[in-house]
Structure formats: structure tokens, C-alpha cells
Amino acid sequence: NAGVTQTPKFRVLKTGQSMTLLCAQDMNHEYMYWYRQDPGMGLRLIHYSVGEGTTAKGEVPDGYNVSRLKKQNFLLGLESAAPSQTSVYFCASSLRDRAEKLFFGSGTQLSVL
Amino acid sequence: GQNIDQPTEMTATEGAIVQINCTYQTSGFNGLFWYQQHAGEAPTFLSYNVLDGLEEKGRFSSFLSRSKGYSYLLLKELQMKDSASYLCAVRDQKGFQKLVFGTGTRLLVSP
Fold it and tell me: A-chain residues within 8 Å CB-CB of B4?
């Protein structure tokens, strides 16, 4: 009964380094999302996917890339990290219906020095 | 554009009732959600409104007026564990129905 699992939980990067955040869900959800949460800004959508093999840009996509090779996994990549990408990142998933709620992972605290 | 407004912080006493307001201006509307987020944790779903009126779920109720672009979350019989941030989110109608989140209201419940 894992739901949405994110790894890692914490990470510190130096400017210019790259990393990948992993998200896995075991609820057979079609839709998956990556959000970032910053103080005073609320949750902002980075990228999302409406199914295996598909991705689309959200509100703040610059500096990030994503892939959804398998239905249950959604990866978020930072190719060259910048201090402005210091944030808490949340993965989420939902069923296809418009009324469906989001299920969130526990979050990744990322600091870029 | 899209704009969602919530008070930044509220305080209340254990056992009391508190109302958290949310006003929104979005290009379309296809439902409003409330999420609860304890410090350092993930948001969890509380309620969903798409039609005008009140939805009650135990100690929590949520109200929607689409004509006024207004919603509120009502918490009754407050408990210490209700200390958390409450996020208002609106689903718009343009293309894929993305959720737009407000900045959240931090509620502190004191004894």
C-alpha cells in the first residue's frame, strides 16, 4: 500500500551538477505531475504526463526535463542545477477523471549551493 | 491570468470553529479543491466542490459560490492536530485541466 514514492528525500547539489528525482506510483494512475513548493509561492506545476510515453510543460518548466517510459514511473531531471532550483519537489498522481484528487509523494528537499 | 487569494495565517483555539476563505479569478472553472498540509509533509485531499453549495464531511465543510469566485473551508471542534496549512486549488478549463494552487493558509490551533 505504498501509494506515491519519491526518492531521494533530501539532496544537496552544487551549481551545475545534474540529478534525477524518481517518482513511482502503484495505483495504476494515468496522470502524473511534478510540482515545486517555495515559501510564499504555493505549489507550481513543472511538468505533467497524461499517460505512458507522454509529457507536457506546466507553469515553470525551464531547467527541468521529464520522462514517463513506464506508466508507474515519472522522472524529473535537472541537467545543470541552479540556486533558483532550491525548493521542495512533490510528485503526484491521479486518475483520469477531472474530479479526481491528487495523491502526493512525501517530497524531496533539494538545496543547490 | 489566474489568481487565488487566501489569508496567509490564522489562529484559533482548540474546540472553536474557524473559516478559511479563498477567492479566485481564473480563465475557466472546473472544480475547487481543498488540501491539508502538515509542516514537512505532503498535501492530502480534504474536499472537492464543483457546484454551488456546501459539502460536509465530518468536522470539515467546504462551500462554493461560482458567481462570486469564492469558497471557504469550515473546521469545527478544532483539535491541536488541525494545525497545518490549508491549500485552495482551482481546476481550470483550458486544455488539460491543471490545478492552480493558492499560497495556502497556515492555521495555528492553541490550547
Answer: 42
Between the alpha carbon of residue A60 and those of residues A43, A50, B56, the distances in Å are: 11, 18, 35
> Distance, in angstroms, between B77 CA and closest chain A CA?
25
Residues in CB range of A12: below 8 A, 6 or more apart: A110, A111, A112, A113
B61, three cell numbers: 465543510
Q: How far apart are the C-alpha atoms of B37 and A6, rounded to whole Å? A: 17
pLDDT tens by residue, A52-98: 999 999 999 999 999 999 999 999 999 999 999 999 999 999 987 66
pLDDT in tens, B4-55: 999 999 999 999 999 999 999 987 888 999 999 999 999 999 999 999 999 9
Q: Using an 8 Å CB-CB cutoff, list chain A residues near B106.
A: none
CB contact under 8 A, B103 and A41: yes
Interface test with A, best of B2, B47, B98, B105 (most A CBs within 10 A): B98
Q: Name B56's Cβ contacts closer than 8 Å, sequence gap at least 6.
A: none
Distance (Å) of CA A56 to CA A43, A61, B83, B98, B107: 17, 9, 35, 11, 34
Minimum CA–CA partner of A102 in chain B: B45
Residue reference for cell 509533509: B41
